[in-house]
Automatic annotation (TrEMBL):
<dbReference type="Pfam" id="PF02194">
    <property type="entry name" value="PXA"/>
</dbReference>
<dbReference type="GO" id="GO:0005769">
    <property type="term" value="C:early endosome"/>
</dbReference>
<feature type="compositionally biased region" description="Low complexity">
    <location>
        <begin position="11"/>
        <end position="22"/>
    </location>
</feature>
<feature type="compositionally biased region" description="Basic and acidic residues">
    <location>
        <begin position="1"/>
        <end position="10"/>
    </location>
</feature>
<feature type="region of interest" description="Disordered">
    <location>
        <begin position="319"/>
        <end position="338"/>
    </location>
</feature>
<keyword id="KW-0963">Cytoplasm</keyword>
<dbReference type="GO" id="GO:0035091">
    <property type="term" value="F:phosphatidylinositol binding"/>
</dbReference>
<protein>
    <recommendedName>
        <fullName>PXA domain-containing protein</fullName>
    </recommendedName>
</protein>
<feature type="region of interest" description="Disordered">
    <location>
        <begin position="1"/>
        <end position="57"/>
    </location>
</feature>
<feature type="compositionally biased region" description="Polar residues">
    <location>
        <begin position="23"/>
        <end position="33"/>
    </location>
</feature>
<dbReference type="GO" id="GO:0005770">
    <property type="term" value="C:late endosome"/>
</dbReference>
<dbReference type="InterPro" id="IPR051837">
    <property type="entry name" value="SortingNexin/PXDomain-PKLike"/>
</dbReference>
<feature type="domain" description="PXA">
    <location>
        <begin position="100"/>
        <end position="289"/>
    </location>
</feature>
<dbReference type="GO" id="GO:0045022">
    <property type="term" value="P:early endosome to late endosome transport"/>
</dbReference>
<dbReference type="InterPro" id="IPR003114">
    <property type="entry name" value="Phox_assoc"/>
</dbReference>
Amino acid sequence: MTETASREPRLPQAQPPTLQTPNSSAPGSTGSNLPKPPRGQGSTRPAEAQRPLPDTTSDKATAAFIRRTLCSHNVLLGNGEKGRNTPRPIEEVLPPLTSSNGVDLQLYAIIAVIIKEFVQTWYAKITPDHVFVSEVIQIIAHCTRALEQRLRKVDLEALLLDEIPELIEAHLSAYRLAKQQAASHRSLVSDPRIIYHTLHPHPALTPVPTESVPSSIVEQRECESAWRQLLVQGVLAVLLPTEDLENGCLRALVAEIFAEMILGSGISSKACEGWLLWEGITRIAEVLQNDGVKEEDSQSDYASLGQPLSRLERYGLLSPPAAEQNGPPEPLLTSGRRHEDAPMTISGLFWAAVQYAFLAGMAMRAVIAAIATSSSLPLRPATSASELSPVGATRQSQQLRVGSPALGGPLASKRPIVSMRMWSCASRLVELDTRMPWLSGVISLLRWGTLAGPGRVGDTDGVLDRFLSHTVQMRVLNPAFLPILLRTLRATLFPNNTLAPPRQPPTEEEAKEIKRRCAATLLGLLPARVAAAFFASTSRAEQLRQAEELLDCLDDAYLNKHLIFQIVELIVLRLVPELGERGVQELLDERLG
C-alpha cells in the first residue's frame, strides 16, 4: 500500500521516432519500405534533431505539470479522478486562489515548482503522505484570497504613478548628492555609502558594511535577516487563520520559506544587483524595439504589395522605392548642389512642409477626439479618509490648510494624475532640468495650466484626468495582462518548470559590458535627431557615455537595497495597513488572545 501511495501517475511520453528494420515482427509494419541506414550512423537522427522542444508554458502543459505535482494523491483519495477519460479541471480539484482561473493556473504552476524543488526533495524522504502539502496549499489559498480582497481596496494608480516614483526620485537625489559630496575635497567623509545612508537611512541596512571593519558586515546581515523575519511574521499574523496561527511550528516553517527563500535569496541577493537590473531594463527596451520594428516591417510590406502610388510619388515629388536601393537619399540642401536642381529642392521642401502639417493636423484631431470621448468616461472612485496613504493624507491635509485652489477639494478625492510624482521622477532620472531647463519649465507651465487654467481639464475628474485614468486602467492595470506577466515570470525564473542553474556573478568587465549594452539599447529607442539634441552631441560614443552615466544610479547593490526594501515595505503597508498602526507582537496577542 505504501508503494502504491508513493507512486505518482505519469502521462505517456512521446517516444522518439526510430527506423524499423526488415526483421521487425510488428504487424502492419511499414518499416521494410524505409531505407536502412548504414552501419555506424545510427546515432544521427535528423527527425529527432529537428523535433521542436516541448512548450512548457502552454495552458495544457502547465495543467499537466500541476496535476503531476500537486494532484497525484487525488486518485487515492477518491476525488473523482480515477476512471475518467478526461481529468477534471484544475479549478475543480484545487482550492481557488483568486477570482480568475487564468491567474490561478499560473500561480499554481509557480507553487508547484517551489513545492517540488524546496519541499518534496526532503519531505518525500520522510513519508509518502501528502497531507502536509495539502495543508500548505490550503494556507496559501487562504492568504491569496485575503490579499485579493485587500488589493481591491488599494489605489493602484497612486501606488504605481505617485508613491513608488517618489521613492525612486528620493533615491536618485540622495545618490547624486552622496556622489557629489564624496568627490569633493571639502568633505570629511569620502565614502558615498555612508553619506547616502545618512541621507536615506534604513534600519535593516545599519551599520554601513565596510571591509575595514569586518564585524560591520556580519552585524548588517543580522539586522537584514531580522527585518525580513519581522516583516513576514507581521503579514502572517494578519492573514493566517487562527488555527494555523496557533501552530508555532507551521508558522515558523512558512515564515522561513518566505523570509529566506523569497525575500532573502530572491530580492535581497539577486534583485538588488546592478547588473541584473540593467539586464531587466535591456529586455524591456528590446521588447519595445521589436514592436517598433514589426510595425515598420508591416507598413513596408503593405506598401510593397502592389499598392497604387500616391499623388506625390505619381508626379515625381517623392523618390520612388527603386531609388532607395541605390543608396541613402541625399539631403535636400547641400553646398555642392547645382543651380538647375534648386527649383526641385524648393518644391520638395514645400511638399515636405505640407506633409508635416498634415501629420500635425491628424495628431491634433486624434487628441481632440480622445479628449471629447473622455467626457463619457465614468468618474474616478473617491477614496475614503481611512484608505488614504500617509503620504496622500499628509499632502491633502496641507493643501486643505493652505486652501490651494488647484489641488484642493474634499479630503476623499483622489490626487490628479497630472500632479503625481511620475512626471518629476522621469525628469529627475534624465536630468531634464540640467540638460534642457527651458523644456522643463515649459512642461511645468503646461501642467500648471491644466490644473489651474481654464476648465481645469487636468484636475481630479477633469476631462484629461479621466482620459489618463482610463488609459492607465486599460494599458497598464488591465487584469488580462496578469496571467501573461505571471507566465513570463515563471518561464524566466523557472525554465522548463525547474530551477535554473545558479548563475555566476559577472566580473567587473562583464558588468561594464552589460551596462554598455543597456545604454546602447536605450539609445536605440530614440530617434537620431532627438538623441543629438538631448545629449548635445552627434557623436555616438559621447551619447553612449552620457547614457551610461545616467545608469550609474544602479551601480552599488547596497544602495539599491535601500530603494528595493522601501518599495517592498510600501507594498506591504498598502496591503496590510495594520502593520503601520501596531507592532507584530501586538497583532499576535490580539489574534491569539
